[in-house]
Amino acid sequence: MVLGALPAFSLMGLFGPGLQSLMSQRVGADEQGQLQGANNSMMGIAGMIGPILFTQVFAYFIDAQRQPQNPRRADAARRRTAVHCPAAGWNAARKLPPPVLSGDVGSSISH
Question: Given this model, what pLDDT does residue 1 score?
Answer without folding.
Answer: 56
